[in-house]
Amino acid sequence: MDSNPVNTxxxxxxxxxxxxxxxxxxxxxxxxxxxxxxVQGILSYDPKDVIVxxxxxxxxxxxxxxxxxxxxxVEMLTVSSTGPxxxxxxxxxxxxxxxxxxxxxxxxxxxxxxIGSLAAGVAVMAAMMCLWNxxxxxxxxxxxxxxxxxxxxxxxxxxxxxxxxxxxxLTLLLYKPVVTALRKAHLVEESSGSGGTGKVHTGALILGVxxxxxxxxxxxxxxxxx
Length: 226
Description:
Blueprint: H1 5-33, H2 48-59, H3 61-78, H4 83-107, H5 111-141, H6 145-184, H7 202-222
């Protein structure tokens, strides 16, 4: 443990700067995601969750919540047309994916732990969004609750599982390069994030590519392209 107060001060000063940068990247990712057409006109793919969960892996679940709230709030003020309801659903969706993943990864700090934590995050997010869409969508869209209930297993659940799989795959592909870049820029300490040797894990790359490719194909199916 470093007892040098100067180093401790520098580390504490770096963290807000790094979180701010992650917020900016997450916002940019959200803008990029807007080029993807919405499924059934109501469900949009959002890649910002990748950056949020990476922030959670590095700094912990509270940081994931902070990034999610900041980016979703700025999105509401700038490009979103769904107002406070969209902001709330954004935060619930992102946090239900990133927070469980960050909590589990904090306890199981390994590649196996990362894969397991992301799988848990996808499952929690898909379940939470079914529940929240069942509660909120009838109030917001004026759709009968029975109609929304019938759409849960055929639309909401498949979409969120596919979205979660894509974002989990992208996280596996991007986490190590992002952490390495942040370390080289002296924005995070050597002990932050993944603790390995800096080598790319081949299994994680293969799984990440498979998840992203499969998820993209399924999104195209949901959009009616394939």
